[in-house]
Amino acid sequence: MSRTDSNTPLRGALLDEVVLVDRICRPERVAYKAQSLPGHLIHVVTEGEVQERAGGVIRHFGGGQAIWYADDEPVQGTILKAPWVFYTVNFLAPALPPPPLDQRVCNVEPQTVARMEQLLNTWQAADVPPLLRHLRVHALLLQCIADLLPLGSHHHRVDTFTQLWWDIEWHVRRNPAEPIDLKYLRRLTGQSQRSIVRACHLAVALSPMKRVKQIRLSYGRGLVQLSDLTMTEIALRVGYSRVQEFSRDYREHYGRTPTDDRRAGPNYRECETLDEETGHDPA
C-alpha cells in the first residue's frame, strides 16, 4: 500500500539544541554594538523601535514585529523609541534555512507573543522534570518557528534523506562568495555526485547548482533592497566575479535589474537615526 504525502513518516530531527531563551528590556535611547549568536537567533519585539545595520543590511523594526538573525552576524544599531522590550531565543538547527534577507523582519500575531512568553516560562521552570521541560521547550519553539517562517520555506523537506543537502546548504550560506560547483561539493562532503543531486532534489526540488544560484540571488536581493553597498560589492559578496553576470541572472529571476529593484524597494536609508556616540538625535 502506498502512502500519500499527508501520512508519510517524518524522519530526521529539526532542532539540535535550544541554547537560550530570555526577555530583555533596554530602557534608554542609545546606540549599541552586538554580535548575534551562532545558529539562529530570533527576537520578538513587544515594545520600542530600533534601526540596525548587519552585514551592510539596514533594518527598521519595532513592537509587534520579529527579526531573525543567522550565522553569528555583527550588529550595530540605535534604539529610536524606548523602552525596547523583546523576547529572544537562540537555537541550533542546521537543516532549517533562515528566511531570505528581505524577509528577516516580519509582523507577529498576538498568539506568537503568547507562545514566546510561555516558552520563556517553561525554559525557566526549575521544578519541571528535565525530560518534560525538554519536550515542552522544543514543542513551543517549533510552534513559534512555524508562525514566523515565510511561506516559501514550508515547501522544503527535512528528513534523514535530505540531511546531506542541508549540511551543504549551511556551508553555502556561510560562504556565498566561494566558487562552487559539483566537484567542489563532492570534495566538501566526500559523497558522490549522484547522492548530492538526489539529496538536493528531495530537499528543495531543484538541482544543486540551481539551488546555489537561488540562494545567491536571494541573498543578493536582500542586499540590493536593504543595503547601501554598490552593485559590484554585492555581486562579489554573493559569488559573482562580474557584476554584468549578476545583473543578467538577477533580471531573469526577478524580472527587473538590481538598480530598478533598489529604486522600487523600501528606502531604509532614510529612516530616523541617533548619534552613535551619544544616543541622541543629531543637531
Global shape: globular
Q: Please report the total strand number as a whole number.
A: 7
CATH architecture of the largest domain: Sandwich
CATH H level of the largest domain: which superfamily? Regulatory protein AraC
Count, helices: 9
State the separation between the terminal residues, measured CA to CA. 74 Å
Percent range for β-strand residues? 15-25%
Query: Which structural class fits the helix and strand makeup?
Result: alpha+beta
Count of folded domains:
2
* Oligomeric state as shown: single chain
Q: Could you say what the CATH topology of the largest domain is called? A: Jelly Rolls
Low-confidence stretches: 268-283
Biggest β-sheet description: 7 strands, antiparallel
Order of helices and strands: EEEEEEEHHHHHHHHH
CATH class of the largest domain, named Mainly Beta
Helix content: 25-40%
Q: If you compute it from the alpha carbons, what radius of gyration comes out, rounded to the nearest whole angstrom?
A: 20 Å
Give the overall average pLDDT: 86
Structure description:
- The chain has 283 residues and is an alpha+beta fold.
- The chain folds into 2 domains: 17-155, Regulatory protein AraC (Jelly Rolls, Sandwich), CATH 2.60.120.280; 163-264, Arc Repressor Mutant, subunit A, CATH 1.10.10.
- It is 39% helix and 23% strand.
- The protein is built from 9 helices and 7 strands; from the N terminus they run βββββββααααααααα.
- The protein has helices at 110-123, 130-148, 163-174, 182-189, 193-204, 208-226, 231-237, 243-254, 258-264, and strands spanning 17-26, 31-35, 40-54, 57-62, 65-70, 74-92, 105-107.
- Strand 3 (40-54) and strand 4 form a beta hairpin.
- It is globular and about 55 Å long.
- The model is unreliable at 268-283 (pLDDT under 50).
